[in-house]
Each structure stands twice: as C-alpha cells, then as structure tokens.
C-alpha cells in the first residue's frame, strides 16, 4: 500500500503505555499482575485493544490480561507518520465535537448471530498511521463484529474521542472535506452499508485509558454519568454497541462496582434502543489470568452483557523469568514454573464457566501476533529457557505481527510444536532467538475447542496483524461462520 501523505498533528493521540499481548489478554496490551513491567510505546497488539488476569504492563501494543504478562495492543503508539510530530499528552476533558449535523443512521438489529458464529475483530485507531491499515482493508465478510479501539474516558467520567484525526478528521477518497464526520468512523459506516450483517462497537478504555474507571464507577451518580455519556457517544457516532475494556478492577470491591456500572450501561442502552428501534450491544474485554479474574463479579457481569471477550493471550512476556507459550490452549505439564500452571485458555474458560457464565456468553480471544525473546540459550529448543530480554518486533521489541512472522521468521527459524499446549514456537539456536505464536494449525485447534465447548465464538487482537490473505482469520471464518 502507498505510504501516507503528511498529516496534521492529531488533536488527540494516545500516549502509549503498551504492554504485552492483546486487548485484554494476559500480558500484551494490559499489565500482568505479576511483574508490573514498564509500558511500551506502540499499540500494535485490544486492545482494547489490546491486551493478564492482573496484568502488568509490558512492552507491546496489544491488550492483554494475564497475571504474569504485560498488556499488548490496548494502547496506542506515540509514533506517528515519518516526518511528523505527535502530541505527547492526551486531552482528557469532555469531547466538544459538534455531532448535531452528523448523519449516523444505521440499521441496527443487535447481535446477528448466536453461538459459535461470532467473530469479533479489534480495529485500532493507530493502525492508519505507520501500519497503513484502514477500515477499507477489513475483510468484513469474514467477521460479524468490529470493535474500534479506543474511546478515552475523561477524569470526569465521560467518553471522549481517543484520536480525533484518525477517528473523525482524516479525509479519504470520496469524503466531503467539510463534512463533520470523516475518518475511520465514517469509513465504518460505509463498510456496514456494504456488509449488512456487520455490527460495530466502540471500545472504551484499554490499558492506558483505564485509570478513570475506578473513581467514576465507585458511586451510583458516577456510574449513571459514565453510562449516559458512553451511550450518547455510541449514538452520536453511529456504533451498534459499547465494549468496556477496564484493565483491570484491582479488588473485589472494584469488581462489584464494575458489574454495577455494566448494569447502568445496560439500562441506558435498553432505553436508547427503545427510542431508536434498535438492540444495542454491551460487551467487555475480560482478563484470563486467575488473579484478575478473582476480582470480577462474573455472575453480575453476565447479567448485563451480551457476551464476554476473553483476552486469552499474553501468557508469556519479558516480565517472566523463563520463556513459555503466549497463548497455550492447555497448560503444559512440562512447564517447570509452577506460576504458569493456570495460564492457558482452558484454565480461564473452565473458571469462568464454573462461575455460572453461559458458554455462549463467552467468546475466546486469540492473538494475531507472537512474542519474541532474545538470549534464550537453554530449555527445550528455547522453550522454558532463561533469556536476556525482548527479541525483535514488528513495531516494538518483543511483539511480532503474524504477517511478519510468516514473511521473515518462519522461512529462517526451526518450527516446533507442543502437543499438549497445542501451539507452535520458532527457534534459532545460532542466535538464541525464541518466538511463541499462533499459526493456522493452532488456530484450528482453538476453533475445535470453541465448538466442543459450545462457546460464543472467537475474538482476536488485532486486524492489522494478519497476512494480506487472512491466513488466521480464514481458519476462524471457515470453522465458525454459518
């Protein structure tokens, strides 16, 4: 794709504290509760995302939530296009954009599919910059829902634009430059006109922008204001629902406040839907690590949301002592670190279902990226080895988009497969480079798991990470779509 022309400085640009894996996962875009590793500056991998159960921040841009991982993908990068200057701070006050003349008329029917038919993909605001990935690049026929990451939450508890240039100001071919709504939001409207089945949700928060959830959710008045603001934002900009990415409630009390906030949002969405003749959606991005999960009121959450997107990735990252799998389907018995025993898709799914969440309310998150480790000279071909730090990455150290892995690492490194964890890894013994990732084989195993457990579908962080021919998404679509 051609490089972007020089752009004006965005009015709002995320300051990234990116962590290790997807929007809500175990260590990418969220902070893991284990180590609190420093946040990164690129929002590549939900996330809101991207995103450990009590995740600590790591070095990537995806949203994650594992107890031992750092979040990836839930924050946006601070780097803009070459030769441009980016804003070093975000605007946190109420969004003052006048949406009076914006036509956001859409036909909203709520969730068009139930059960395993859901495929939810995160699109990040910052994808339109260095990644040069735009809404028009989304393979919408292979998705049912697009979550736009992210809207910010102001200290006053109001949903505001995260990056006004990317969101509503960037002019695309065919746009009226004087129209009040342009950018990716307008592109999403056009995409929905072309694909009548598609639904869009605005994701609020993410790892970097979750700070203001706790104080505003602590009171009934604060919850009511936040709910009203986010529903107004959704309606003003023509979305079909709200996806809350609070990373993460730090105590059971905050977990109770979270479920009360979602109840307020459900009430506000239902009232708006009654006025608009629409069934508006409410979802969340949830951690997969046991520490963060323990703080959630899962029955209370399930009573309000349409479904839960489980950030089942970032189980590995530079905050850990040894290498392991980024998104193991099952916990491998040969992992020598006892702290990793519950860091797997199946462990998280089992715990959530045991808490009373219906299987079709749980959507399994998968990563379209891998994690790399340098100096991994021991273990089993680099697996379970000590390491010297994050390895190379696509946009930041340690985080490698799947398309980059296919083009630049699979041809050169030796591939291994862990039969119990049901995921691959790559290893270069000469350079002591270890990469944990998902590929079509492991993705197929995860879709088989979704079907066997009668789960509500698949979510992934994030759209720009796949190959141009949608190698990973095709596996999800072939297995899960009707």
Give a description of the structure.
It is an enzyme of class 3 (hydrolase). Keywords: Carbohydrate metabolism, Chitin degradation, Glycosidase, Hydrolase, Polysaccharide degradation, Signal. It comes from Nannocystis bainbridge. Its EC number is 3.2.1.14. The protein is α/β, with parallel strands linked by helices. It contains 11 helices and 15 strands. An 8-stranded parallel β-barrel has the order 1-2-4-5-6-7-8-15, surrounded by 5 helices. Strands 9, 10, 11, 12, 13 and 14 form a 6-stranded antiparallel β-sheet that branches. Helix 4 (220-236) crosses helix 5 (252-276) and helix 10 packs parallel to helix 11 (471-480). Residues 1-100 and 105-109 have low confidence and may be disordered.
Give keywords:
482 residues; alpha/beta; TIM Barrel; eight-stranded parallel beta barrel; 11 helices; 16% strand; globular; disordered N terminus; signal; chitinase; hydrolase activity; carbohydrate metabolism; hydrolase
Q: Nutshell version of this structure?
A:
The protein has 482 residues and is α/β, with parallel strands linked by helices. The chain has eleven helices and 15 strands. Helix 4 (220-236) crosses helix 5 and helix 10 (440-452) runs parallel beside helix 11 (471-480).
What is the CA-based Rg, rounded? 20 Å
**What is the string of helix and strand elements?**
EEEHHEHHEHEHHEHEEEEHEEEHEH
Strand numbers in spatial order across the main sheet: 1-2-4-5-6-7-8-15
The CATH topology is TIM Barrel
Low-confidence region ranges: 1-100, 105-109
Largest sheet data? 8 strands, parallel, barrel
Global outline: globular
Number of separate helices: 11
Any idea how many domains?
1
How would you classify the quaternary structure? Answer: single chain
Structural class: alpha/beta
């Amino acid at each position: 794709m051609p490089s972007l022309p020089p752009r004006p400085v965005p009015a709002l640009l995320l300051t990234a504290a990116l962590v290790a894996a997807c929007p809500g996962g175990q260590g990418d875009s969220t902070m893991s509760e284990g180590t609190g590793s420093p946040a990164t500056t690129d929002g590549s991998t939900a996330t809101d995302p991207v995103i450990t159960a009590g995740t600590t921040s790591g070095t990537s841009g995806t949203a994650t939530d594992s107890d031992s991982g750092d979040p990836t993908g839930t924050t946006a990068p601070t780097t803009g296009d070459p030769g441009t200057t980016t804003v070093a701070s975000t605007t946190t006050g109420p969004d003052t954009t006048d949406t009076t003349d914006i036509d956001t008329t859409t036909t909203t029917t709520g969730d068009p599919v139930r059960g395993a038919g859901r495929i939810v993909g995160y699109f990040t605001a910052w994808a339109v910059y260095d990644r040069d990935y735009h809404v028009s690049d989304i393979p919408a026929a292979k998705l049912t829902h697009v979550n736009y990451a992210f809207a910010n939450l102001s200290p006053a508890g109001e949903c505001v634009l995260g990056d006004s240039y990317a969101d509503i100001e960037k002019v695309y071919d065919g746009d009226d430059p004087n129209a009040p709504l342009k950018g990716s939001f307008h592109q999403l409207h056009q995409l929905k006109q072309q694909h009548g089945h598609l639904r869009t949700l605005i994701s609020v928060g993410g790892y970097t922008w979750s700070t203001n959830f706790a104080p505003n959710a602590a009171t009934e008045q604060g919850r009511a204001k936040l709910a009203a603001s986010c529903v107004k934002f959704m309606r003003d900009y023509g979305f079909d629902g709200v996806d809350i990415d609070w990373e993460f409630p730090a105590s059971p009390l905050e977990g109770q406040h979270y479920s009360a906030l979602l109840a307020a949002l459900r009430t506000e969405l239902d009232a708006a839907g009654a006025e608009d003749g629409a069934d508006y959606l409410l979802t969340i991005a949830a951690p997969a690590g046991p520490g963060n999960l323990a703080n959630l009121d899962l029955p209370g959450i399930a009573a309000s949301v349409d479904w839960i997107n489980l950030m089942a990735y970032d189980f590995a990252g530079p905050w850990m002592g040894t290498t392991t799998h980024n998104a193991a389907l099952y916990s491998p018995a040969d992992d020598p670190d006892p702290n990793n025993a519950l860091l797997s898709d199946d462990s998280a799914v089992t715990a959530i279902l045991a808490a009373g969440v219906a299987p079709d309310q749980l959507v399994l998150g998968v990563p379209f990226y891998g994690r790399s480790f340098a100096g991994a000279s021991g273990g089993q071909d680099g697996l379970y080895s000590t390491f010297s730090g994050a390895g190379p990455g696509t946009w930041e150290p340690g985080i490698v988009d799947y398309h980059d892995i296919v083009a630049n690492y699979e041809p050169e490194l030796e591939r291994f497969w862990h039969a119990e964890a049901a995921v691959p890894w790559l290893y270069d013994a000469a350079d002591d480079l270890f990469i944990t990732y998902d590929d079509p084989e492991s993705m197929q195993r995860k879709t088989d798991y979704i079907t066997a457990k009668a789960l509500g579908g698949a979510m992934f962080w994030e759209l720009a990470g796949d190959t141009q021919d949608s190698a990973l998404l095709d596996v999800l679509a072939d297995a899960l779509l009707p």
